[in-house]
């Protein structure tokens, strides 16, 4: 188990190092910048598309089929639909708060006038692109072209950076996204098992996209079923990505690091798990799992950090 965790962390560090190298090369290549901006809009469109399609399909097709036909329990239909609404509302609210928190996390941009403040602390550094002194853990995003408080990474699915004020919503967005994808897959598996073939059977190969495509072209499979098979893969891929982001961000949150600090091996701001949780979620951090809690503020302003040279255990 320990070997698997170590292998995963090495793989994650390699991904983050590659991401950092791409970020540093953006300003030197206009074509790369334009492509990443296009990817930004594409990622946001994908989130809107997959969220809407999965919600509508589950609410009106797969959930009613599961409770009224597959399990023959129509009196429980409202429970399934209520669960779908709960996940949908959480996902939408957390997504909106990610965007709002992304704006709050902006410390400065290159369009701001240089600020020379006598209260600037010794641990502040100067951003050459913005020509301003910035707090510790604040880094410049080449895509947003702004300095972000406690910048972790730029998320193409939200079109903004994950920083101090929206990391909590980013984690919860992906947590509810992963759980909702798992639930949607269960309902969709039941639907396809009745209208197509069972997933865990000798005919599982019929779930491969090439087979489903050829079967639809030849008229052996209805177009609706072919779309359901495509949706199955989209939900599976989205769920895996959301689970990955939860593991990634959860590890960084527990260790008290950002992605950049993890790559660089910087452990200056590590304390204990309780303080790390309150720094991200606020005092009543557990309530954020149930529902977004923006009224519970974090115990910091994103500009002042206490450093420690003690290794986190």
From TrEMBL:
**Which Pfam families has this protein been placed in?**
DHHC (PF01529)
What transmembrane ranges does the database entry give?
45-70, 82-103, 173-192, 204-223
Compartment(s) of residence: Membrane
Q: Look up and give the membrane topology term.
A: Multi-pass membrane protein
The top EC class, named as a word, is transferase
Keyword annotations for this protein, in alphabetical order, are: Acyltransferase, Membrane, Transferase, Transmembrane, Transmembrane helix
Keyword check for Transmembrane: yes
Q: State the PANTHER family in the record.
A: PALMITOYLTRANSFERASE ZDHHC16 (PTHR12246)
* Description of its domains: The DHHC domain is required for palmitoyltransferase activity.
What family is reported? Belongs to the DHHC palmitoyltransferase family.
State what protein this is by name. Palmitoyltransferase
In its UniProt entry, the species of origin is given as Tegillarca granosa (Malaysian cockle)
């Amino acid at each position: 188990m320990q070997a698997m965790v170590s292998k995963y962390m090495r793989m994650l560090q390699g991904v983050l190092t590659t991401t950092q190298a791409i970020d540093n090369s953006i300003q030197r290549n206009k074509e790369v910048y334009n492509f990443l901006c296009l990817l930004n809009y594409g990622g946001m469109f994908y989130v809107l598309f997959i969220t809407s399609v999965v919600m509508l399909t589950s609410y009106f097709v797969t959930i009613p089929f599961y409770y009224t036909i597959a399990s023959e329990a129509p009196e429980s239909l409202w429970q399934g639909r209520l669960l779908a609404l709960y996940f949908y509302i959480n996902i939408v609210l957390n997504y909106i708060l990610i965007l709002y928190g992304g704006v709050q996390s902006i410390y400065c941009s290159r369009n701001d006038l240089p600020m020379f403040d006598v209260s600037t602390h010794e641990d502040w550094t100067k951003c050459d692109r913005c020509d301003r002194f910035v707090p510790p853990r604040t880094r410049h995003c080449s895509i947003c072209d702004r300095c972000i408080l406690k910048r972790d990474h730029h998320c193409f699915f939200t079109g903004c950076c994950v920083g101090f004020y929206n990391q909590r919503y980013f984690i919860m967005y992906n947590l509810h996204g992963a759980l909702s994808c798992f639930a949607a897959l269960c309902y969709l598996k039941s639907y396809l098992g009745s209208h197509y073939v069972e997933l865990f059977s000798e005919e599982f190969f019929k779930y491969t996209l090439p087979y489903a495509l050829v079967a639809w072209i030849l008229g052996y499979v209805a177009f609706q079923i072919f779309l359901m098979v495509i949706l199955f893969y989209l939900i599976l891929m989205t769920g895996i990505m959301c689970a990955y982001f939860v593991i990634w961000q959860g590890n960084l949150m527990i260790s008290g690091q950002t992605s950049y600090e993890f790559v660089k091996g910087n452990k200056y701001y590590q304390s204990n798990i309780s303080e790390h949780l309150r720094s991200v979620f606020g005092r009543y951090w557990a309530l954020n799992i149930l529902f977004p809690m923006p009224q519970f503020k974090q115990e910091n302003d994103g500009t002042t950090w206490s450093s420690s040279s003690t290794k986190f255990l």
